[in-house]
Amino acid sequence: MVLLESDSELSAGDEAPDFELPAAGGGTYTLAEFADYDALLVVFTCNHCPYAEAKVDELNHLAGAYDGLAVVGINPNDADAYPDDSIERMKERVAAGEIRYTAYLRDESQAVAKRYGAVCTPDPFLFEGDDDAFRLAFHSRVDDAMSPDEEPQRYEMREAVEAVLAGEEIPVAATPSRGCSIKWSDE
Question: How many C-beta neighbours within 10 Å does residue 168 have?
């Protein structure tokens, strides 16, 4: 396991890169499918990384707590090398109710992760709806628990989501997320 901190090329105000990806719950999703939401949280994540696993409950909470927020998990890991990250395993977890995001998508080609500049799991990007686009509002960690066995003291992404939905300034400084490196298939 390689531990990395997130360091994306996207900057505040940048438009969310589009995607068209298969969902663990069935069907295919594009960015446009979420146009009715006021905010979009795209989290590059996976099934096997302990850092990503430690955030599943909080991401499920975020997906259920805010009507104006879509939580989209995207799994870009090489499933040949990490079978737990296969679309089949993702489907099992969604069907079992373990993962209750708005959508849990598979980035088999890893092109979407590269366009976003994602480097670790989890790597969260919070976008604010702006007419016909989503613009990056906050690229930061989910909470202040930086290792899988720590309990969060501050739920920073919740604060950021609430501020974005209220049209207010985000009251939290961005702190890079920390997690396992994305398992690129060409490495």
Answer: 9
